[in-house]
Every structure is written in C-alpha cells, then in structure tokens.
C-alpha cells in the first residue's frame, strides 16, 4: 500500500509539473522569448554589415534643411533621372506610397511621371489596408485594374493560404499608375513586443495575394513572375531560392536576418543623402563635378526612401527591430532583399524540435537529481544551463533561432519539482526509518538523536537519574511449559501494555532483557520529578499486570506476577560503544543497585521495592514498609530498602 501511495504521489507531482510547465511555456513565449530573441540576434546574428550591392538614397535631415517638407515631386524626378541617365543601377526601389496629386504644382507631378515612365527597372511601393474602399470609389474596378497590371503568378495548389485581413489597396493616382511598371508591398508587421522580426513576403488582400517590395525586386532580378506555396516554404520558380515560410494572419512571413550597422550610422547598408544626389545631377547638367560619382551606383540595387529625424512633419520612418529601437524603414526593406539575394535567413526551430528539447531536458534533470548528490547534480545542472546558453548563441550565429528562455525556465521548474520530490520522498523514507528504528530504540532516544544529528559521538555526562527494573517472576519455569510462540505472544502483549505507561511518566525504555525491562527517568527527557514519576509508573504497571493476569487466567494462560526495583542516584548517561556502533544507556553503580533491589522481590515476596535514595524523593506520596539491613551483593555495608504498599 505504501508503494502504491508513493506511485500516486509521483503521478500527482508529474501532473502538477506538466501543468505548470505548459503555463511557463505560454508565459515565456509571450513575454520573455521576444526579448531574448532580440538580444541574441543583436549580439550573435547581426555580425556583418549588409551587402555592398545594395545602397540607399535617403531624404534625411540634410535634405530637409535645404528643401522643406513636403517636397515637390520634381525633386524625386531629379533623383530618378540621375540614376537612369548618369548611372546604371540594376534595380531602383521607391520605398514610398504616392496616393495623391499635387494640385498646387501639377507641373512637378508631370515631371516625375514623365521621368519614371522611361525607367524599366523601377519598383515602387504600395500598402494593403484593413478598411474597405471609400464609398465614392469603385474598389472592385480598381482591384481588377491593379491585378491586371501588377499581379504575379502564385501557385497555391500544394498549400492554401486562407487568411485575408486586408480589405483594400492604397490607390495610385491615374498618371502615376500608368507610369510605373512594377510594385510590391512595403507593409511591415510588428510582433507582440512591438518589434519588426518578420518580413511579410506575401500579403493577401480580399483573397488575392501580392509580393513584398523586396520579393518583387528579387523576382525581377531573376526574370521570373511565378511563386509556389508549400507548407513550410515559398519556392521562387526558376531560381534556387526557397524562403522558410510562416503562415500568419498578417501574411506569409519569414524571420528577417538583420545586419550590423555602419560605424556612427543607423543604417546597415551604405547610405547617401538625397540632396547630394540632386546636387550631383544638377552639377552634371552644368558640366561640373558631381558631389557623388554616378559610378557609385553602377550595378547596384538602389532604394530611395525618407527618414528625417529632425522633421516635425512625421517624416521619420523608423521602427523598432532586434538591433535598434529606431531602424530606418528603407533599411528594413533593403535588409529583406539582402536576405533573399543571399539566401540568408533566420530559421526558427520547429515545434517538434522545441518539444524534444524540453522533454529531454526535463528527463535529464530528473535523472541527475535522482542519481547524484544535491551539490553534484546542482553543479552539473548549472553547467547544462550555461552550456545551453552557449549552444543558443552558436545557433544564432549560424542563423538558427531556438527558444532561449523557455528551456531554462523549464529546467528551473523541473529542478524545483525534482528536488522537492526528492526531499519529500527522502523525508518520508527517513520518517519510516525513524518509526521502524523506534520499535528497536526508544522514541525519545530516537528524537534526541535526530535533534543532535550533527553532534553524535562517544561520550556523555553525569546526571542524577532514576532507574527502574521490572522482571516477570518465575518466567523460566513458565516458558518451559509453553511453546516459543506462546511465550512470545504473552511477552509481546505485556510489553505492549507497559510501554505507554512508562512513556506517560516521562520514562525511556533503555532495553528489553528477555522478560525484563530497564527504564530511565530524568534523561534524556529532563524531569525534576523523575523519582516520583518512576514510582507512580511502577504503581500503574502493577495495576495493569493485575488486569492482564485476570485476562490471561480466563484465557487459560499461566499466572504471571512482576517485581519492580527502583533506585535514584548519579550515573553516567550517554553514548557507549565504538565509532561505528553506539548505544545510548546509563552506566554506574546505581544501575546495578536498581537491578539487585528488584531481585529482592523474590526474597521478600514483594512487588515493588525502592532504595532509600528514591524514598527520600517520594516519602510524601508513598506508604512504605522499611526492610532494614539488607545485604546487597557487591556492597560491603548493609542498607535499607522500602516496599511501597500504596500511593497516597
């Protein structure tokens, strides 16, 4: 039954551990893993700057100082004309959403539209919107027109994407719509912590799918317009690129691998000020030396965007990412393309891998705690935790993102449960041992040992105690008439009845000697009335034997009487034996005297005899008869002993 209870206790503990582990996992994923991901990504993943083949032209604070915002569209036209006429970039990406016309300066708009109309390698941005088209807009007609011109082929026969939280598209003005040839989504979605850790490679608007700005550029670079969707990946047809895909409510995403920024810069790709490009274009027209040599952009992919921190008009386009709190949006778009071109992604561990790590770690923790000592197991478990942190850092350095906090949290909670289970189980086992040993030793001696467990040694002290000896009269002749089993039944019942009486009066059974009992009063239980309690105990023992004798005679068992001898005096109390085997006992002449006094019960046909030293303590509670000048074996002088007749 006890074994079954231990199993039940283990099952209950395991279920509680499982419940708390699930709770810890959910909390960790929600509140701690995003921060851990950012930290590991910043210090171990983002170790190099972005590709030299991708550069940025940014409308920055320097640009706004010369031309106040909002810019006239002809300034954009000058940038695009410079790139198209004087340089030879592979692709030009416009990270901006143009959704209205400049009614005050239509000539500036026309200059822009006429310029980009002649650029065949320009990809511009659009944004998906969660609200419907305005009532005065024929949204269906615009969507069909947009699809006809810009839609790519997405084969979803292998895996269907059924989420579509976006309801409409940002609308291009008609002249701008007619001038551009390629477009891609510039949408970025923050995680629960507010950080941009994912790239929305494909978004769905009212059931129709569109690529990101970076993905559209990559497809244009590789002369393909077809994608294939699979359960865990996006395959760009006619290329070797496989994008690890995460299907979310926001879109089909992948983890973005960010790069280290340039010294004294917030950009991970080389950045040029837009005003320097404009001034370069003007200088070239005038035959002057440009501020920026157009060859800087030859063969490069050029992103054009805005990020002016000093502007009070909301021109700062910066979002929190794992590597910085205000990461320029145009650099985020460039980073996404950098990942695609170099097949350089962060791959999150799968749910199966995460579960395997957690289960193996939990089992390992339990095994170590069960097999090793506390300090050995604790040391190894600390080493395992540190090793896992190092392992995680190495994974992040190689573009793999395991959970960092969750396994450590599970290890901690498993350690708490493991050590608690071990200590509770050991406590139960110790209690069982105490109970078992208490049947061989006195419970009070056992308690004294437990209380002084760290100070157990040979030796003791001198103390005034009272020793009681009780012996069954004529036990030898009785045992000859009975079988061994019958004798053991009688002795067991006798000892079972008198043990509580001795305990009741603060006595401690030192040992059973055949049919005799030796009890100590005054140690180890401190009791100033030890002599009185010993006599009261003896009196009650005699009454109990009278009751047992009547019961045994009725059962046909032999008549039994006991004799009790009590002596009080100074003795040595403590541990004797060897370093490996100890016994708590009382040694001294007064102990021998108590035994010899008990033996005189046979001589004088008495039941309870006490020494004169004991009588001096109990004279006010006991009626006695003095037996004078008794010769005690081993004593040169005769002494007085007393028979206790009754307790008054």
Q: How would you summarize the topology of this molecule?
A:
Layout: H1 2-45, E1 54-59, H2 61-66, H3 73-85, E2 91-94, H4 106-116, E3 122-126, E4 128-129, H5 139-150, E5 153-155, E6 168-169, H6 174-179, E7 182-185, E8 198-205, E9 208-211, H7 213-221, E10 226-230, E11 233-236, E12 242-244, E13 246-247, E14 252-255, E15 270-273, H8 274-285, E16 301-306, E17 318-321, E18 324-328, H9 329-341, E19 347-348, H10 351-371, H11 374-397, E20 400-401, H12 405-437, H13 443-451, E21 459-472, H14 475-481, H15 484-504, E22 507-513, E23 516-521, H16 530-554, E24 562-577, E25 582-587, H17 589-604, E26 608-611, H18 612-618, E27 622-630, E28 639-647
Parallel strand pairs: 1-15, 1-16, 2-3, 2-16, 3-7, 5-10, 19-20, 24-26
Antiparallel strand pairs: 4-6, 8-9, 8-14, 10-11, 11-12, 13-14, 17-18, 21-23, 21-24, 22-23, 24-25, 26-28, 27-28
Summarize the structure.
With 648 residues, this protein is of the alpha/beta class.
Report on this structure:
The protein has 648 residues and is α/β, with parallel strands linked by helices. It folds into 3 domains: 116 residues; 257 residues, no CATH class; 199 residues, 2-Layer Sandwich (Alpha-Beta Plaits), CATH 3.30.70. It is built from 18 helices and 28 strands. The strands form 7 sheets. Strands 21, 22, 23, 24, 25, 26, 27 and 28 form an 8-stranded mixed β-sheet that branches. Strands 7-3-2-16-1-15 form a 6-stranded parallel β-sheet. Strands 5-10-11-12 form a 4-stranded mixed β-sheet, with no helix packed on it. A hairpin with a 4-residue loop joins strand 24 and strand 25. Helix 10 runs antiparallel to helix 11. The two termini are 50 Å apart.
